Amino acid sequence: MSAALQVTAFGLALLSTLLLLLATCTDCWMVNADDSLEVSHKCRGLWRECVTNMQDGVRTCDQYDSILADHPVKIVVTRTLMITADLLAGLALATLVLGLDCITFLKEDPCVKLKMCYGAGVILCAGSILGLIGSVWYAVDVYVERAMLVSHNIFLGVHYDFGWSCWLGMAGSMGCFVASVLLTCCLY
Known about the structure:
This protein is of the alpha+beta class. The chain has helices at 2-25, 73-99, 110-151, 164-185; strands at residues 30-34, 40-44, 48-53, 59-63, 158-162. The chain is 61% helix and 14% strand. Belongs to the claudin family. Claudins function as major constituents of the tight junction complexes that regulate the permeability of epithelia.
């Protein structure tokens, strides 16, 4: 039972880590489009902003200035939290691989392997919390930005939606959290 649980947690952690990495690297955290004309579709990400012309499908992207330049707080905080979550999830995945029962590393000491799985679960939990805070931070800021424009009667024809990168970040964080619960609570 323990080996099956470990392999399940490993598969979920691997998939969730890939989703977190994909969310961090992609550029569609916030989507805004003009409701009335449907001429263009703009995606804003952590690293660049892309506009797709809906008539001919041409996509142009503008890279943000240097990483050290002044950026909005939501981009800086989300970048930091997502990169930290990626690193923690990767570290947890490496620790979990070494702690799996089916790996011959430290085969003579199962207590150490169990502690490695437990430690991987704790690290995954920390990474999932940071990733979830980063994703939700960005989503809340998008909502607040839209609410401010509506309250001032500015750009009422433009709507803001959460992009697929934001949803990937939330899904990857929740997957890491579930994998950490499996590793920390269910292994014993």
